[in-house]
Amino acid sequence: MVTDTRYVWVQRSAVVLAAFSIAALQATVPLERVNWHFVLPRLFYVAILFSAVHDGWRGGLITAGLCSGLILSLKQTDTTLHHAMESVVFCFVGTGTGILTERLNAAYQKIQETSEAMKRAERLSAIGQLSAGLAHEIRNPLASIAGAAQILGRAPALDEKQSRCVTIIGQECTRLDRLLTTFLNFARPRPPKMGQAALEPLLENVAALAEYRIGRRGITIERRQQGKIPSLYCDPEQLEQVLLNLLINAVEASPDGAAVILEAGADRRNVWIRVRDEGSGVAPGDIDKLFDPFFTTKENGTGLGLPVAHQIVGQMHGWLDARRNPGKGMTFSVHLPLQRKGV
Ligand SMILES: Nc1ncnc2c1ncn2[C@@H]1O[C@H](COP(=O)(O)OP(=O)(O)OP(=O)(O)O)[C@@H](O)[C@H]1O
Ligand SMILES: [Mg+2]
């Protein structure tokens, strides 16, 4: 569908102009010229089909109505019944083509989304297989380096510079180990341990954990709930991990003193949990990369937080999406089915 509103209005005006031109032409052709009177009303179909394809069934129906009005207003009395019947066909063709086009567009969009998801899954699997082995191999020597640094650090003869170097080695080993653990969790995720869990205490817990990460930045986490939420069938530990990742991202993107909203609700089929912030947001061109492994704009980011979250929610038969807020910041939403599905 066309989204540029200026272009849409130019198109609509062109259709209206074309319809009026056809009617004006028909009004000037004498009734004896039967062939012309057969051909000209057929031209209205071009305008009707064009509107239906671009504006859906509403566009098709409105243009069909306009063309019917024009054709009937010609007041060529001997053909009024014929024109009235033609008007019915106009409406039928306009609405039918519009509905068909809308369905085709929806199917095309779904195919595109599925193909994107498949491409991502293939990429993840290739990266996962290649690097998981490597990460595993790095971990053992890393543990030896950390152990050796610890032993060195205990030596009494170290001067200040030497002991600072030993501390740096220890800290960097811890950082690398954390990165490798996150990566291995991502590359070889553990299957979820599904069970029934109440959402409220889980959200309370996650909010408390995230507040711990805020420090002195004055950011508040506001909890909101729409209606009563039934207990969820999920892996509570993994869901906490997902929400904590989203909250930490939101806090990191927010300016000091801002609010981050943690909101939950349910409809008939799904429970949704949203994390909304008023932070820096994501550039429009980057929105499709958010769930790609290693996409990060942070100096010390791994770019694995969101891909891991996406993967975990998928394993629980739910989905995670990201939207830019109309004003400022981002909203990430986790959707989980209420009905128990086989895992
Ligand atoms: N709420 C948000 N607002 C703005 N940008 C965001 C938000 N959440 C994620 N992002 C963008 O998405 C990128 C990827 O996020 P992800 O959580 O996967 O990794 P990271 O946060 O960079 O690293 P890590 O999670 O290891 O700290 C971030 O670097 C940031 O650019
Ligand atoms: Mg993150």
TrEMBL record:
* Cited Pfam families: HATPase_c, HisKA
EC assignment: the record states 2.7.13.3
The answer to whether the entry has keyword RNA-binding is: no
- Name the enzyme's class: transferase
Q: Which GO terms describe its molecular function?
A: ATP binding; phosphorelay sensor kinase activity
What SUPFAM superfamilies does its record include? ATPase domain of HSP90 chaperone/DNA topoisomerase II/histidine kinase, Homodimeric domain of signal transducing histidine kinase
Q: Which reaction does it catalyse?
A: ATP + protein L-histidine = ADP + protein N-phospho-L-histidine
InterPro entries in alphabetical order: HATPase_C_sf, HATPase_dom, His_kinase_dom, HisK_dim/P_dom, HisK_dim/P_sf, Sig_transdc_His_kin-like_C
Keyword flag Endoplasmic reticulum: no
**The entry's keywords:** ATP-binding, Kinase, Nucleotide-binding, Phosphoprotein, Transferase, Two-component regulatory system
The protein's matches in PROSITE patterns, at most eight in alphabetical order, are given as:
HIS_KIN
Q: Which residues cross the membrane?
A: none
Which residues does the UniProt record annotate as the domain Histidine kinase? 133-340
- Tell me the PANTHER family matching this sequence: PEROXIDE STRESS-ACTIVATED HISTIDINE KINASE MAK3, SENSOR HISTIDINE KINASE
This chain belongs to the protein called: histidine kinase
Recall the taxonomic lineage recorded for the source organism: Bacteria, Pseudomonadati, Acidobacteriota, Terriglobia, Bryobacterales
